[in-house]
User: Fold these one by one.
Assistant:
Number 1:
Amino acid sequence: MTRPVLMGLGCYLALFAAMLGQNTAYQPDPDWRAPEEAASKPNPLANRPAAAAGGKKLFLRNCAECHGEDGSGILKKHSADLHLPVVQEQKDGVLYWKITNGNPDRGMPSFSKLPELERWQLVLFLRTLKPADKQP
Ligand code: HEC
């Protein structure tokens, strides 16, 4: 497909998503960057996929009010669509650091009050979300 056609398609998709209230146009804040040391931390629960179920409960309790129950973001809250490749491409350590520290200036609170393992459980759950363009 040619570039203009693709761009046109992108606009339609964004418009459709906006009607659903999702935030598919979300772009991460370039100034919100995890230090290298935090970014390279592996998820200690990586080989415990069953822990993602607990992560989902934590997500519904702490995160769904802004990111939606399915994690696709809420346009009005400017929250991230967590299915997007721009989010999923980031390392576990980076997502953990972002959940821990938040980006209060742009509306994402810090969750440093949650126990460390619960934060890693949340990261595990985020990995179960499919990229938006792969949804049926
Ligand atoms: C009060 C609303 C609110 C709550 C509650 C909230 N978030 Fe967010 N979240 C946001 C907003 C707004 C952004 C976008 C921040 C930005 O633009 O930099 C965001 C961004 C993120 C990002 C980063 C995307 C990126 O830019 O890389 C992740 C990951 C995330 N949230 C996960 C969570 C998780 C997990 C929880 C629950 C523990 C949670 N959020 C709870 C509002 C919220």
Number 2:
Amino acid sequence: MKKTMLFFTLILLLIFLSVNPVSAHFMTDRSKHSVDNGEIRWGTYHGSTKWTSARNTGITQWDNEGIINIAGDTTSTVEDLSFTDYSASDGVLGSWQKYTGADRIRFNNNYFNNMSACERNKTALHELGHALNLDHNNVAGSVMKSGYICQNFLGAHDKSDLKERW
Ligand SMILES: [Zn+2]
């Protein structure tokens, strides 16, 4: 490759990198999360979910990163998060909400009943991402991208956001 060619290639690469920064996506409000003392203890304060497989996949994936401990509530811990179900034609597959007593992740049976297991897993991963203060993004392969997506694992961007935030 000629030196001038290499020079222009480098310039183009620099321009590309500067206009396409894959920056972190946290919620503007840094207090919007379910993390308490470096962990999330989940339980049944607000009820339970029938989508235990999706719930467990979400918990295991985020917990395996080894940054925030996500474990079941015990008599000696305070519950931080519950998983419950509801049914409505509201266009929402699932949601995470700050709540008194414990925060809440709700799965919408209206859509979950017709979704594939991997779409349910991705939704559980997504809502837990909110519980970890992560916001939506449009990064391919990220569980924080909205919509019906078949995905059983965290994306590279999800892992780096978690690390950067906590
Ligand atoms: Zn969301």
Number 3:
Amino acid sequence: MKPSAILDALKKTRPNETILATISTIYTARKKAHHQMLQGISPIVHLNKTLSSSDFTTTTKVNDDGELEGLFFCHALSINLLKSYHYVLLLDCTYKTNKYKMPLLHIAGITGANKTFSLAFCFIAQETKPFYDWALDSLLTIFTSNNIPQPDVFLTNQEQALINSVTSAFPNSTHLLCTWHIQKNIVTNATKLIKNKAKEGEMISAWNELIRRPSQFNFHDKFQTFASKYGAKFEEYMHSTWLPVAEKYSNAWTKSIPHFENCTTSRMESAHSFIKSQLLGPNYSFTAVIKIITNALEAQLHEISAHYHQQKINSLKYIGKILHNCHGQITHFALRKAQNNLVLASHLTAAERDECNGCHHTRTGIPCKHRLAELINRGETASQRNSMSSGILR
Ligand SMILES: [Zn+2]
């Protein structure tokens, strides 16, 4: 109710009493009640207190009334992983399904063995630029205060305020859009605009073909042909939403960006459901919640580290001789990819060997079939440090 309506109601319900309250009395009383309510129900304040006495690096954002509006927290173990695996970061918000009524921005990294790790969490009161700016500045501080090189790539969904903050805090990193979220958005709009199930299915296959095209040549024409096939409204939606940002998701542009084949943030969905079940469970005290997260992060590190040590010892079977030097230096995940390229290399003709555009190596850090064919030809072996940056065991 508006304060004037409250005052009106007071006068009407007590016609025989003299009401001393003025409009400003109501304003003051309302603010006091609001403040008391926040004191009583704001569990995030307690969460912040618990975090400040733990292994988490935390930063907070407070408004003019001293109320907590943002909480960023990052565990020391995650920072250790980041020191080795800082190339690609995934950012995704999980929505207001929690008792804090705040969206939770989750920041994750990927190891050389292709495992996801939670880097940082951030509660924000609003999904607006000032809040995202603050969150990304807090993340930037983690990099600068630990002397960690900044990421090559950030992957997010199409959330303009978040994207603006990423590009202003990390101007030297490339921002890419998650192709899985784009497809979800297109399907939602197709349901409204195309209204023909068979056509929608065909449209999705055509879309995937379009974004996998290797060349920028004719991309706009091909996009136009694709979009115009499904009615004027769909065409307008595709043109205004996805054409201007094509270089952030289309292979024709992203093929030479070191994203190590990470084109979606969908791997974060399982991490989200874990966080929701642990952090946002209604029955835990905050001390218990922090203990659970710390345990989970320790388990995550243990799994990554056990996997690392196994790979240092165990050699992969069926790996070409040319890659033997890489054993114990490069993850099995990257070695298997190199082995696939080696198989392709053995089928290349001399003319095909000269067709290398260098994109595969830049994008994945793994030598391409052309490079391997050249090495075989010269009787050399793949050198681990320089040629397979994506899979280095550290
Ligand atoms: Zn090549």
Number 4:
Amino acid sequence: MDSQVLRTELARFRCTFFPAAAAQLRTKDLISITRSSSVLKLYFASKLLRFGSLQRTQTSAAAIMAIPMNGGDGLYSYTKNCDIQKFVLDACQVMIEEGIDHKLDIHASAPKAFLVADLGCSVGPNTFTASQNIIQAVNLKYSCKSFTNGESTPHEYHVFFNDHATNDFNTLFTSLPPERQYLAAGVPGSFYTRLFPRDSVHVIHSSYALHWLSEVPSEVININSTAYNKGRIHYRDSGMEVVKAYSAQYAKDMEIFLEARAEEIVGGGLLMLVFPAIPNGTSPSLCTIGILFDLLGSCLMDMAKLSKVSEAKIDSFNLPMHTAFPEEAEKLFTRNESFSMERMEEIPFLNPAKNGTVTSSYYYDHVRAVTEGVIESHFGSEIKDELFEHHYLNKLEEVNHILRSPKSIMLFVLLKRKVVN
Ligand SMILES: C[S@@+](CC[C@H](N)C(=O)[O-])C[C@H]1O[C@@H](n2cnc3c(N)ncnc32)[C@H](O)[C@@H]1O
């Protein structure tokens, strides 16, 4: 077998498939299959490898932890408890408009279909607002500065709503705004894998989703590790080793996320990300989001003391969530060579309660809508009412004074796909 052919085949193979899956195949696998080969054997070997790699992609996607928000439209549904996220979206609207106006670089001719994607869309209504904001901004841009060929707006818009396959897409689709200006499609799957064809999407947006990791770092639930996070489900008050394990997982995930998006976004297209963060130099123990989720862990421990839950079950559970520092996130974004970072803004964690006072019940509804599903799937449904209604609500009231002066922020990050010649 010609070694040059082999190298080319291997390179093509590595580029064709999602790198994380392809990386699992060793060069020697390919060599051993193709060593004695005729052209025909090489052909079948590469087909086999392709099949294997797709299977591996699916396996690694299946290993990704899914934590969908509460579906439906009940009391603790995400639909009814997403004001915090809506507030953030509203705060970012001007930056989204400015980003599209100043940085979106698609100008030769109006694309037949302008593709927008919202990653981690959940069940709405925020995802509809985000998509509408983007489309309005694109329309406005091209009605003022038309494409080089004189056309003034894209022909059609196509919006892709992405979330884990277990997301309540039925609720999402049945509540699509009837007057929308776009065709809609759902894309199930983790955003830590490839979701769209190469070079196809013009703007990708994601809000309040990127703090969810692809998985819990294995060390934190490994009894033999120095990063074992015993008795906790969040790293807010844990030792440095635990914090480092979370930070390393975040870096790994962000690299995979950006590599996948770099494949999908057209040159000159935009990636707009909004996610929770913690101000540089602040101790994770003061982070509002950390406090909210750590408190849930301490309620579980209280229930373990009452023999309502096994302690071992708590030790084997951690939330796959990381709240990054701006400097930490910036390093990861600027390290990626496919995008240029055009803007990064810190948004204060605003008080979204309608009467201006954040009450414990306000946070209660929010945390319940976000975590009830995952708690149920690990601990069973029988503990959830006591956990939330008795323990969690009481503890939240005890820390209400701390929650009134939040120490979390949101980050708005605008990345532009570099044009490859
Ligand atoms: C708090 S909701 C945000 C929903 C919406 N973007 C908003 O701003 O209201 C976070 C969503 O991200 C989704 N999510 C988390 N990790 C994900 C992943 N790896 N792939 C796709 N969706 C993910 C969750 O399932 C959840 O629906």
